[in-house]
Design a protein that fits this description.
alpha+beta; about 40% helix; 8 helices; about 10% strand; Glutaredoxin; about 240 residues
């Protein structure tokens, strides 16, 4: 079994960025902020930005975002702790999220989770000793039509089984390339994915199919039966 890495008692964090990193962050932050009518509207992408540098939303990252947007550290922390995409301690190169919500669970998600916990020797929000994989229980991957689903740094791996999930994490740890079922052709590191979420595309957005037969099944049945949505009645809007 791997030694789990998670929160470390007494763990210390860097208190600030070196000048070159600070200048690079400031330049990227200016690009992001220019997209919004008010600076504070850039809070979420700026959290992704500092996460792309540190691998998590660090205390120095929170301080940078707060100072840049004219907010308090407490205001920034309140947002960072609300959304699960923002990590509050260092994690692995790849975050492997197993959906355990109802549909995925009954389709095999619980079995996948149990198999990965045993195989990797870690539990929720813990990282393998080699720093490669952080395991995470996810409350819905928004892909019920392909249940059970596993995500790696927000890329879909559909219709998984315990065996395919084990192979997936083994390939990630061995440095072998893995191909998502839909979307991008490759999986990038957690930091690289965070930079994309900050608003800096890496050219992979148009790769691969976004939807498949399972996603479009309802639409196909509707076409076969000639079903259409009810007409929109503007007169009823204000009632």
């Amino acid at each position: 079994m791997s030694q789990a890495i998670g929160r470390t008692p007494g763990q210390t964090h860097a208190t600030g960025y070196d000048e070159a990193t600070r200048q690079r962050l400031a330049a990227d932050a200016a690009v992001v902020m220019a997209r919004y009518p008010q600076p504070r509207s850039a809070l979420l992408p700026l959290l992704h930005l500092v996460q792309s540098v540190d691998g998590y939303v660090s205390p120095r990252g929170i301080a940078f975002v707060a100072r840049t947007l004219g907010l308090t550290n407490a205001e920034v922390s309140a947002v960072a702790t609300f959304y699960t995409q923002f990590k509050r301690h260092p994690g692995g190169t790849y975050t492997v999220g197993v959906c355990i919500t109802a549909l995925c669970a009954v389709m095999g998600g619980d079995a996948i989770w149990e198999e990965l916990v045993e195989h990797l020797g870690i539990d929720d929000d813990q990282t393998t000793a080699d720093g490669a994989v952080t395991l995470e229980r996810v409350e819905c991957n928004a892909a019920c039509d392909y249940a059970p689903v596993v995500m790696v740094n927000w890329e879909f791996f559909d219709n998984q089984t315990p065996a395919t999930a084990v192979k997936l994490v083994d390939d990630l740890r061995a440095g072998r390339p893995v191909a998502p079922t839909r979307g991008a052709d490759t999986v990038v590191t957690f930091r690289a994915a965070s930079r994309v979420l900050a608003g800096f595309p890496d050219g992979r957005a148009g790769q691969g199919p976004a939807a498949g037969p399972a996603t479009l099944a309802g639409l196909r049945v509707a076409h076969e039966h000639g079903w259409t949505a009810a007409a929109y009645d503007e007169a009823e809007e204000g009632k």
